[in-house]
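Lay summary. Proteins are chains of building blocks that fold into shapes, and those shapes determine what they do. In this project we predict the shape from the chain. Here is one chain we studied, written as its sequence of building blocks.
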Amino acid sequence: MRKTFVLDTNVLLHDPEALSHFGDNDVVVPIYCIEEIDQFKKELSERGRNAREVARNLDDLRAKGRLAEGVTLDGGGIVRVATATRPLSHALRPNDSADNYILAVAVEIRERNPDMAVIFVTKDVNLRVRADALGLRAEDYLAERIDLDELYSGTAERDVGAAEVDRMYADGSLPAEPEGLFPNQYVLLRDEASAAHTALSRWDAAKRAFVLVRRLREGVWGIRPRNKEQHYALDLLLCDDVKLVTLVGKAGTGKTLLAIAAGLQRTVEDGSFHKLLVSRPIFPLGRDVGYLPGALEEKLNPWMQPIYDNVELLMGLSKADKKEGRSYMELIDMGYIEVEPLTYIRGRSIPNQYMIVDEAQNLTPHEVKTIITRVGENTKIVLTGDAYQIDNPYIDSANNGLTYIVERFKNEPLAGHVTLVKGERSGLAELAANLL
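And here is the predicted shape, written in a compact code that computers can read:
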């Protein structure tokens, strides 16, 4: 049965392409949404850019027909702009709230079409509750929603014979035709007869073989993996064939530290990249850092201090070294490391760099797309984050940019993902992550 979706303003600001994500159903945009969008179009933030894109999309539809009567999309759906003939003063406290008028549009459409499935779509929890109280069917916008319990982990286990495990260590690879594996997925090959006889491997889809995970006896910049997931992560971070790496894990699992260690190894020691570029979102993406005192470097210090701490840990600086003035600035001054916010990344092209985007769970899918499309030739990009620690109020653990990229790129040979499970920061940190 054909459905009618009435959209709230926040849906369009979250995803400027939302109009085309409802299949061959009818999509109604209350005219009051357009008034609200007009208030945001001059902002320099991501929300402002989305507002301008929505306005352009609607203007393009005008060229195909009258929005008041409905314009047919390529997918068969119809988009129209509607207004309410009466406010909701009979049900809600009378005021000029745009939310009330948007709800009024949905209520009138339902009353005029009692046999039609009318669904009000909003990312505002309270507005969904109010809509439900008015008898409307209300839903969240789920076009990019991913269940964390079903999120691709990047790892698996397989039972094999003892001879195959031995062959893996002898040859460094094991040809196979397994089903259900994704490119660059890490697999623990386990001897069927002895659970202690195992091999850590990566599925190389091009070679149609399991490839032995590199041995890191000397560590990477003094960091040695403490569990198999960290082994997987470092192998992926050091692999030049994989250009996009995503690391997901709770606090203390070593996501950022491993990424920076691998970046320094490939940049400073191996010389494979011109420099290591580390960024974190200054929430929200696009907010100017000019509200903080000092020069740009001083403004960034509160946001980037976790990165600096990790770099100094990897440098092995003692208290005596710090008293002598040694710090992470040595690597910055030598041009090996550049630390900057994501605020000014739009429009850039970033070639020959090892790029790390920390706390990527605070980015929307659209923002992550903007970042990844900046990647130039011979650049490797690493996204790290914890989907359960989100500071951005407009996204959640199921629709953030990090988990979106994990799922969208899991079939691509240029990408790889590892979910880190065990916390290694300290016993207390691991306990807190699990209990609190």
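What the prediction tells us: The chain has two domains: 3-139, 218-435.
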